[in-house]
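SAMPLE LOG
Freezer: B-3
Tube label: C17
Construct: single chain, 266 aa
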Amino acid sequence: MICVSILAETNQKALRMMARGFALADMVELRIDRMGAPDLPALVGNRKGRLLVTNRRKKEGGFFAGPEKDRVDLLADAARLGADWVDIEASTGRRLISALAGKISGPGEPTKMIVSHHELHGTPAWKDLRQRYEACRAFGAHVVKIVTYADSVEDNLRVLRLIPRSLAEGQAIVAFCMGPQGRISRILAPVLGSCISYASLRKGAESAPGQPTVSEMRRTLRCLQAGVGGFRDSDPGKGTRPSSTAVGSPGERRICRPGGTRGVPR
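STRUCTURE (predicted):
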């Protein structure tokens, strides 16, 4: 599932970008942390598809500088107004996360919760990554999100290793690396079963380093679907395991013809 991340400074700009995002992607992430006074009734009320609302704290790469309770209350308000998903950092703490979980749960189609962790300056060792994963999962996350910054290509391997481990435990996950060295993980993560692939509307509108545009990501995933076989997009909260037919498997040596990789993030 491709999710366009919207990081706007005003409500009007956010509404324009959301309209474009819903037309191009499966989901839109509305980053309200850069907005001084987000008009949530207007923003959530004008959704044209699945909407994820994030209010990222400064310590994990966001812009919200107010009290933590105010930041989490805005997520609760978004859920009350009908947002499909909210993203909250594990570092927020048990009291506020538990309060948010209590407010968004209920009958019908309650808002689902992504509990996330972001490493902005590198990729921890495998043991530390597992601890961060377990910390996110302990909050009852519908989806665990682990994102690090890749200083080397090898860093991608440690983060991607979380995906099959998580799915084997029945936990939906998003895991990839940021930065130029992390671009390859954004391509491979959905093949392994990461349930959301983040993208920008256009070059220059990225919400994180190394983020491809939605058109680049869609072309890349289309090429992978043609060449890998068992790969398919997945809905958040469910995850997807690739089938046994992988690249190079007997009988599945499909080729993405020249030109098919045009626009692949580099």
